[in-house]
Amino acid sequence: MSLAAIIANLPALVVVVPLLLAPVAALIPVSGAAWVIAVIGTGGALISAWLLQGAVTGGVSFSYHLGSWPPPWGIEFVVDAASALTVLIMAALSFVATLFARRALPAEINERDAGKAYSAWLLASGGLAGLVMTGDAFNLFVFLEISALSSIILIALGAGTDRRALVAAYNYLIIGAVGATFYVIGVGFIYAVTGTLNMADLAERIPQVQQDTVIIVGFGFMVAGILVKAAVFPVHIWLPAAYAFAPSAVSAMLAAIATKAALYILARILFTVFAGVPDVTALALEWVLVPLAIAGIFTGTILAIYENDIKKLLAFSSVAQIGYIALAFGIASSAGIAAGFIHIGNHAIIKGGMFLAVGGYFLALRSRVSLSAMTGLGRRMPITTTGFLICGLSLIGLPLTAGFISKLYLVRALIAEDMILVMILVLVSSALSVAYLWKIVEILWQRPEGDDVPLHGDETPALYLPLWILAIANLWLGVAPAPLVDAANRAAMHLVGGIS
Amino acid sequence: MIDPVSIITDSWNYLIVICLMMGGLFIVISQNNLVKKLVGLAIFQTSVFLFYITVGKMAGGTAPILLDSADVAYSNPLPHVLILTAIVVGVATTALGLALVLRIHAAFGSIEDDEVLTIKAEAALPRVTRAASETDSEARS
Amino acid sequence: MRDNPVLRTCAKILFAPIIVFGLYVQFHGDYSPGGGFQAGVIIAAAFILHALIFGLEAGRRLVPQWLNLALLAAGVLLYGGVGVAGMSMGGLYLDYNVLLPDPSAGQHVGIILVEFGVGLTVTAVMLALFHAFAGFNPERFGDETSDEADHSRGGS
Amino acid sequence: MFMSPETALLTGIFAPLVVALLTPFLAVRNNWRDVAGPIGGVITFIAALHVANDVLAGGTPSWTAAEIAPGIELGFSVTALGAIFGLVASGLWVLAAIYSVGYMRGNHEKHQTRFAAFYAVAVHAAMAIAWSGNLLVLFIFYEILTFSTFPLVAHKESKAARDAGRLYLSILVGTSVVLLLPAVIYVWVMTGRLDFIPGGILAGTISPEVAPWLLAAFAFGVGKAAIMPLHRWLPAAMVAPTPVSALLHAVAVVKAGVFTLLMVAVYIFGIDYLADTGASVWLVWATCFTILASSCVAITKDDLKARLAYSTISQLSYVVLGAAIATKMAAEGAAVHIVMHAVGKITLFFVAGAIYVQAHITKISQLDGQGPEMKLVFAAFFIGAFSIIGIPPAGGSWSKFMLMVGAADAGMVMVLIVLGISSLMNIYYLLDPVARAFFKPKVKEVKITWHPLTVWPPVATAVLCIALFFFADPIVGLAQAMVTG
Which chain D residue lies closest to A478 (C-alpha atoms)? Predict the structure, then answer.
């Protein structure tokens, strides 16, 4: 294939490369070889996403017509500032998680399942990329289910170390399927009154529709479905168990990217597809999204403070962080949406890094990482722990870390909209998050009562290098955040541009 | 203003959709048995399939296969295509769900949600580790 | 059921016609109602019927697990390969017009290949599902508590 | 001049950090490790002198690393007030480093390497706070200071030490994250900048109704300033070894707090803006209450370090009061008081530690009659107490005088009365231990062991207290430069 052909087909390659390598990986019984396929798949997606991001930097956006069928008849992939940024973040994180998987995944699952596991891995990352790229409301549902089903398989693989993974996967399946079906019902209503499925076309036709009720009901179903996938409070209940019992590498990948795609879709639906009916979306933003986001922030943070299992603790913290992103979108100004995108990126590297570190602990301890099991690990695994700490400080949002930049722009957006009370709540919650992080830090350096538990193997670069890539990204984006902030601003301008 | 009788006579297809949808969702929520939950999910999804198809059907319309005469009303083919995809997705979901139920049954010995939950609270270690710890305790006693 | 002569005979007679019907549905999909999804299920039905009557082991001998997995992957790869071929020949992903010099002929070739890929995969998936459920062995995954597991479940 | 001001700036900030990083490697020989602190202190102090000299000459040494958001740069830039604080922190570090060697060895403390390393990190943070280029950089090092002193506070690793450490951390980090950081971000959102400009940056951008609330967010966000009711962490931190209490909880940490507030009042709000809007009137009363209340508590304390801690709380509010009065003279007095109180209070803490190392006495009631045994240290205590009370010829009299003149300028008679009452109480509770030691009969026979490294530093700082009375000009000059710009 010529270079020109590759360039022209980049939007498809982001999705197709991982998806097509998935069956190849499934055929390979050797774990190492299957891992190479996974690296090629996620790496190819990352390169494509990187080139796409370069292409949209100039402010252009373009559409890719699958099968050369022009929209609104065919399915299009939309490449604009918003989707390119989201896809780049997700591709980068799934690539880093794949690097970590080489040592981590075979240790936690059955060796003969490794090929199929990497197959599901590639399907999940390709499906999530497709979710972001597609400009077709129904195609979105297909990608939603590709990514969800493969994620469920990956979560169930955790049964190799803890059988509760099966129940977590089952619950995710049921809740996720109900959510996805809600979305399809909504699409059905909207299709019934507009006769189109293309998002851009929908955005044009929805304001012309006379039957307001149908639009409202369809919108409600669609948003409810996406909220389930995004794990926004109170439909987050599948998330903590799913992240906690999945294999370490899977937890890291899912925590970093899975909900981000759904949050992006939420923004797309709210700010482009239904941009023509601002009174409907404003209602949802003001009375549903913002209160739920704040409730989620507090619920997640408080549950995290009282949680003892470290992976569950991080999962609860994810619920809170998803709340921040949802809140940022709920502000609905371009500054707010930009803050949301900034936090999508920052939270991906923060939580990805923390789960990678916990994966390192898990492989050293060979048991579930509870707080008491972590006693004194700071001295014995200093490299992993330092990386964990950097990500942790970023999570609370101390300056010089990426998390601070998120907080800075979120608070700025809140002040600009005079949402002072919400701002205070956000800051109080971020202070509460200090509580659970400090609890971990203290234990990491505490001396154990008796002898140290024996560790299985030393720290190896295969396990801590991916973590450190993310830790350095945290510091880098904390000191020189301009690229991410600019990209997020462009994304926000692009989405809000649809309203005006 | 709205005549209840006309709702039943004119919109019976939608009423069926609603009944199936609510029934399915109710089963998903209320049942303890993991297989029954999946059955409920399948009913719920099927109601959506019916909904799409009934929306796509045009009164007096024929199957959307191109005919030579110009004044033929075709039913909308697109919903059928969408639902074909949705059915495939539904099959995959159900299959995966049932596979998980089998594994849960093998691991916990039960497919009742409440029983599985109580087992969860106990030792959830993998078989090898737990067997080892049990023999330990037996040796001690 | 293996000993029931009526079932065995019927199965033997039906096996080939079902597959032929499946192939008909498969390759007429581009002109008339049909296509890979339906055909795949129909063809898989033939194999499942075979396995039901003659036993799981016989079914596995007919389509071994590795072949099943290979077919599954091959179908997806064929589908994707057509898409990639479209890209490499100067079109976009899944663009059939560029496959042959004549766009119309290209459309035919493209859709037939893609549908064939779908058919292969659906057949393989259906078979894999059947064997996974029918041949599920709780011993492989279970623990001590699975004694009461239903051992009668199985293909015979 | 052998250093450019910029080089001096970076030397002053990073020399302590280098010491901290080298300490674990030097730990192979205890002597190498213990000499690193004083050497680093001397280098830092020389750098601080250069910087202060340049500031007095009208320069603004500055250095920028990166820009993290429009109007927020990562960098350092020395203000006149910063020069003062830098001098205090580095100069007293030299003595405290020598003293801590004597104390830690004399007490046979464990983990001396860790102690020395974090001690140096804390000084690094204090220097960076002093010379920070904007509010955000100040905030960053404010947090680093908090975190780096936690291992020092919880040094003994006992349950009591850890609980105290947790209280310390939760109050300081909690207030700063909940109030200070939001206030910083709010200022940035409203003005688009965070740097320190003489005369302030808020005038014209923030309405007078908001100003008191914003000031409250700063005043209570800076938990290190220990305005009641956020003072609890300071007595709790007294479980730390005395060198920590001396340098950090009499100089670096608490002064970082009041320094931050003074910086905010002078360079962010601006004295004139505060005076015009009356935003700080409530703070005058809050600090007056803290001054009197903590003096009352101090009188009841029998533990010497606890009494000194409450005295510190009261004295810190003097500085904040100076900022809140919002006249030029009062602000100058506040700046000078940072220096005078630091030198005086470190003397008192040094003495408390010296008494503990030599005689293992912590209670004031047990000091009766011990004076003749430890003449030098009690003499130092006496002079230090003089400085705190504000009696000539000790340095503290200048700052108290300036604060009173400032209050009179603003017509706040009540403040004058409060300051007077407070001085009387100071006399009682600070001179009481000395009086008991010399004029009461012995209640406890103790074995005195002589540790010279714990005795000469307090004597040196006591001499410095006297010297500062006669040579206060440079300090006052810098303070004047602070308000005139």
Answer: D68
DSSP conformation letters of chain C: -TT-HHHHHHHHHHHHHHHHHHHHHHHTTTTSS--HHHHHHHHHHHHHHHHHHH-HHHHHHHS-HHHHHHHHHHHHHHHHHHHHHHHHTTS-TT--TTTSSSHHHHHHHHHHHHHHHHHHHHHHHHHHHHHHHHT--HHHH--GGGGGS-TT-S--
pLDDT surpasses 60 at C148 = no
Does C144 fall in a domain? no
- Which residues constitute the domain of residue B83? 4-62+72-140
Total domains in the fold of chain B: 1
Q: Is the pLDDT of residue C155 over 50?
A: no
So what's the pLDDT on residue C2?
62
Residues 34-63 of C with CB under 8 A from B: 37
Whether residue A196 is predicted with pLDDT greater than 80 in this model: the reply is yes
Contacts (Cβ under 8 Å, ≥6 apart) of B132: none
D365: helix, strand or coil: helix
Instruction: Report pLDDT digits (tens) over A369-380.
Output: 888 888 888 888
Mutate to test the interface with A, among B100, B111, B117, B130 (most CBs of A within 10 A): B100
User: Is residue B67 domain-resident?
Assistant: no
Q: Does residue C10 form part of some domain?
A: yes
Domain count across chain C: 1
Separation in Å, CA of B55 to nearest CA in chain A: 6
CB contact under 8 A, A399 and D157: no
Distance from CA of C9 to the nearest CA of B (A): 31
ipTM reported for the complex, 2 dp: 0.82
Q: Do chains C and D touch (3 or more CB pairs under 8 A)?
A: no
CB contact under 8 A, C80 and A8: no
**Min Cα–Cα distance to chain A from D173, Å:** 8
Instruction: Name every residue whose Cβ is closer than 8 Å to that of residue D95 and which is 6 or more positions away in sequence.
Output: D41, D346, D350, D457, D460, D461
Q: Which residues of B touch C (CB under 8 A)?
A: 63, 65, 84, 88, 95, 98-99, 102-103, 105-109, 127, 130-131
Cβ of A67 and C87 within 8 Å? no
Strands D62-69 and A76-79: unpaired
> What residues in B contact C131, CB-CB < 8 Å?
none
Q: Which of A192, D418, A169, A82 is nearest to B76 (CA)?
A: A192
- Whether C53 shows a pLDDT value over 80: the answer reads yes
Distance in Å, alpha carbon of C4 to nearest chain A alpha carbon: 38
- Of A110-124, A207-221, A256-270, D200-214, the one with minimum mean pLDDT is D200-214
Domain spans of chain A, in order of start: 3-497
CATH classification at residue B18: 1.10.287.3510
- What pTM did the predictor assign? 0.87
Sign of CA dihedral D457, D459, D461, D463: negative
List of chains touching D (3+ CB pairs within 8 A)? A
The average confidence (pLDDT) of chain A is: 89
Long-range contacts of A21-24 (CB under 8 A, 24+ apart): A21/A122, A22/A119, A22/A120, A22/A122, A22/A123, A22/A126, A22/C76, A23/A119, A23/C72, A23/C73, A23/C74, A23/C76, A23/C77, A24/C73, A24/C77
* Chain A CB within 8 Å of residue D177 CB: yes
Domain limits, chain D: 5-484
Q: Is B112 helix (H, G, I), strand (E, B) or coil?
A: strand
Quote the CA–CA distance of C22 and C43 in Å, as a whole number: 5
In this prediction, residue D73 has a pLDDT band, given cuts at 50, 70 and 90, of: confident
Q: Which of C140, C147, C149 sits opposite B105 (nearest CB)?
A: C149
Residue C49's domain comprises 5-137
Contact B127 C143 (CB under 8 A): yes
Contacts of D64 in chain A (CB under 8 A): none
